[in-house]
Each structure stands twice: as C-alpha cells, then as structure tokens.
Amino acid sequence: MLSRRNAIQTAAILAAAAATGSRRALAADKVIKVGVNLSFTGADAENAARIGNGAVIAFEEANAAKAVPRYTFQLVKLDDATATAGQYDPAQAATNARTMVSDKAYVAALGPQMSGAGKAMAPILSQGNLAIITPASTNPDLTDPKFAQQYRPAGKAIYFRTVATDAYQGPNMANYMADTLKVKSVFVLDDSGAYGVGIADSFQAQAEKRGVKVLGRDRLDPKAADYAPILTKIKSLGPQGLYYGGVSQAGVKLAKQAYEIIPDVIKAGGDGMQTVDLLKGAGFPAVEGWYATVASPHVIEDPIAAKFSDRYFARFKQHPDDYTITCYTGAQVIIEAVKRVAASGKPVTRDAVRDAIQGVKLPTSMLGPIEFDEYGDLRNKIISVFQIRKNTEQPLDDPTAQYKYVGVAPVA
Q1: Which residue in 43, 133, 183, 342 is deepest, having the highest Cβ count within 10 Å?
Q2: Are the CB atoms for 143 and 362 separated by under 8 Å?
Q3: Where along the chain do its domains lie?
Q4: Integer angstrom CA distances of residue 145 from 29, 88, 149, 318, 377
C-alpha cells in the first residue's frame, strides 16, 4: 500500500506528466490533408503511380524539413479509376471530389490525370472552394472563361495546371507533322473521352489550317477489342499520317493493330500515348516510331533535374518522367501557398490556400518560372515532342529510355 506521502508524490508526478502531455499535445503539428487524385487502377495505373510519386517526394521532403512550422502535410491517395471502366471513371472522380469537399481538413488537392475526371470534379470542388492543381489533364474547357458557369460555378478559379493545354498540344503537333515530318494527309481518331475528343479537335483544326488534308475522322470504343474495320478503311484512303487523341485503354490496341494493318503510316498522339502502360501493353515492335507530345518542358535530362531524379530513383527504384516533375512542382506550389498563409498568421483554411495558390510565383522550379493566370492556366506554354525508338540497352518498358526527345513543337 502507498503511504500518504508516496501517494502525494505519485499524484504530483502524474499531474506533471499530464501537464507535459498537454503541452506536447498543444505543441503537436496540425495536420493538413492534401488529396492526390489519379487513375491508380486500370489502363493508366502505372503512369499514375509514377506521376503521384512526385507528390510523395515533395511532401516527405517538406515534412522532414519542417517547411511550414507547426504543420504536417498528410497526402491522401484517391483513385478515380474503376475496374468496371478499365480506366478513369467520371462518377468515381465526382465521388472523390465530394469526399474531399466534405472534410475541412483537406486544404488543396493534386490531380486529376484525365480531363474527363476533371470535368466531373471541377463543379464540386468549385462549390467547396477547394483548389486542385493538375499535373496532366490538358482539356482547355476546364479553365476557359466561356465555360466558367459549368466548371467554376462559385466564381473563383479552383482548377490550376502545371502543364499547358490542348489548345497548344494538339495544334503544335499538327505544326510539327506539317513542318518537320512533311505530312500532307492525315486521318484523325479519338477515343470518345473529353481529353481525346478535345485534343483531336484542336489537332484537326490546325492541320486543316496548315493545308494538311484530313481524309477522315473516326471514333474508337475503348472497350472494343477489334479496330481492324476502321484501320482497313484508313488503309484504303492512303494517308501519310495518323493522329490519335486518347489514352492507353484504346491506344494499346490501336498501336498493336495499326502495326499489322498500316505499318508504314506515320503515327502520332498526345500525352495519352506517352506512357509506360503503352510500352507494356503494346510493346515492340508495335510501338516503334510513334510520336507523342508532353504538355510541359522536357527537363528530366537537364542537370537541374539530376538530383531530383537520383532521389526519386533511390526512393522508388524507377525513373521519373516529365509529368512526375509537373506533379512535384504542383506540390511545391501547395507547400508554398500554405507557408504563406501560415506566416501571415491567418488560419490555414482551403479558402486562404486557394487565394494563395492563385498568387504564387515560383521563379526557380525545375520547369522554369511558375505563375498562373486568372483562370488557373500556367503562363509558360511549351509542348515537347518524343518518338519511340527502341533502346535495347535499357528496359523496354521504361519511358525515359524508350521515348526519345526530338524537340519543342512549333508554336501554333
């Protein structure tokens, strides 16, 4: 049994411990949630992981360095793809947006990968005033003031980008095909998605403007297995080039079957065809020679990105790509925005963070200067062109090895 003196001493120790615990609890970092919404299931899953890991690195580094004193970032993964769709699913994307908006701990988000997901998410995020920065979705409608009522009904810009849009990606590739590849005729395909239709439309309009004869336009069903009838029709028309607007689910099958039916036609697509999923799903020799664009500067091979690439490889045992960099940069913008709000003494709320993101300027990011216009679009608009050229000395499913950078696409 405890003596009275011992009991008093024990009570004092427990009280002191409780007080210390309380002080520690008061001193504990506040947790800030940031969602990363990408297509982690289905045809684009591996590319999503490669992109999303850019955010993982950024927030791990920020937390380790105490970039924002008294705050800790918690990155929450949200998958907008479903097994039923086999790729991104707009309904799931909308559900993810509602999940984030309903939880006040979320102050910002990264993603999505696909414009169709973005169109489902944007109105919901607008009503919740939750800013999202996309490292990859490029459909221009999402930030076009003509569609403000549809995609930002609450008024303020909430959809920001660290990439250019298809208002540049499609037309600039049309310029490249006309000027560099000397293509005189082309057939255009899309996969019926928001991204695919939009980029194909913009490519076609610029191709026609440049005097490239568009011999036809058709649409692929991403879930269909056989594209032979469409490709046989294309073969009968004899175009010099084929342009595909779309993502991997249809793109993998298109690459395989086009190699068999129209092997000598010059083939090109947007960033939906610049993925590890295409290399794995279609493989060589089917993918050999395809051109693809990326809606950002190509910096992976620059010395400025070397240290990041080393850190990334050490962490994930794979090489980053350009959209890993755009995601990392988007995360840097969010970190900087939170830092500014916290330093001002204001509460770190999603409203304050949104306003801070709008005004952020990063003069020395790996992508160059980062600044958004009033609609959320990146002011720096560069489209990079790649061609798949087999490099037998490197893994055949490594996009950093198999996509050869061939230059900046001419401005539309």
Answers
A1: 133
A2: no
A3: 31-164+302-371, 167-294+384-408
A4: 39, 25, 8, 39, 11
The radius of gyration computed from the CA coordinates of the chain, to the nearest angstrom, equals 24
**Which CATH topology does 31-164+302-371 take?**
Rossmann fold (3.40.50)
Question: pLDDT digit string (tens) for 203-236?
Answer: 999 999 999 999 999 999 999 999 999 999 999 9
How distant, in Å, are the alpha carbons of 25, 276, 326 from that of 67?
20, 33, 20
Task: Dump pLDDT digits (tens) for 339-381.
Answer: 999 999 999 999 999 999 999 999 989 999 999 999 999 998 9
pLDDT at 29: 86
Q: Say yes or no: do domains 31-164+302-371 and 167-294+384-408 share a fold.
A: yes
The CATH code belonging to domain 167-294+384-408 is 3.40.50.2300
pLDDT, one tens digit per residue, over 118-159 is: 999 999 999 999 999 999 999 999 999 999 999 999 999 999
Give pLDDT < 70 ranges for the chain.
Answer: 1-27, 412
How far apart are the C-alpha atoms of 309 and 303, rounded to whole Å? Answer: 10
